[in-house]
Design brief:
By secondary structure, the protein is of the alpha+beta class. About 20% of the residues lie in helices and about 35% in strands. It contains 2 helices and 8 strands. The strands form 2 sheets. Strands 1-2-3-4 form a 4-stranded antiparallel β-sheet. β5 and β6 form a beta hairpin. α1 packs antiparallel against α2. The protein is globular. The two termini are about 25 Å apart. About 20% of the residues are buried. The mean pLDDT is about 90.
């Protein structure tokens, strides 16, 4: 089985920890989105392209500017949207499966203060490990 990297790993620091993880094999760009809360658990396989990784970098930049970021929005597939809550110190994470189940899940995540730096680091490690993104 290919070695996957958690490109995205959003976890709350709260006692009840909702998590949203996107693990991807850097060689094939195949992976899955996993949402895990006390109430709902779901998995969705995804096939990414090099453009998707570039788009994820743009989403991180938007989030760094405290704007909303949507990943894979243009494609007719699963869309992951992250938005800041203006009033409190947490994020709303929405996973919308536009094909297959047609389900949408929205969870609150209260990550630690370094989550964004961690995700920029994850992206850099992923790019370094992926032969499809080098050159």
């Amino acid at each position: 089985m290919p070695e996957r990297i958690d490109l995205i790993s959003l976890q709350s620091t709260w006692a009840t920890s909702p998590t949203v993880v996107v693990s991807v094999d850097p060689a094939s760009l195949e992976g899955e989105i996993v949402v895990d809360t006390e109430f709902v658990k779901g998995r969705k396989k995804v096939s990414l392209h090099s453009d998707d990784i570039a788009e994820w970098a743009e989403v991180l930049e938007a989030l760094d500017g405290e704007e909303t970021g949507s990943w894979m929005e243009a494609a007719s597939r699963t869309v992951l949207t992250i938005e800041w809550d203006d009033e409190y110190d947490y994020l709303w994470v929405t996973v919308e499966d536009r094909v297959g189940s047609m389900a949408t899940v929205r969870v609150q995540v209260g990550p630690d203060e370094y989550w964004l730096d961690d995700h920029f680091d994850r992206l850099a490690r992923f790019r370094e490990a992926s032969p499809k993104l080098s050159g």
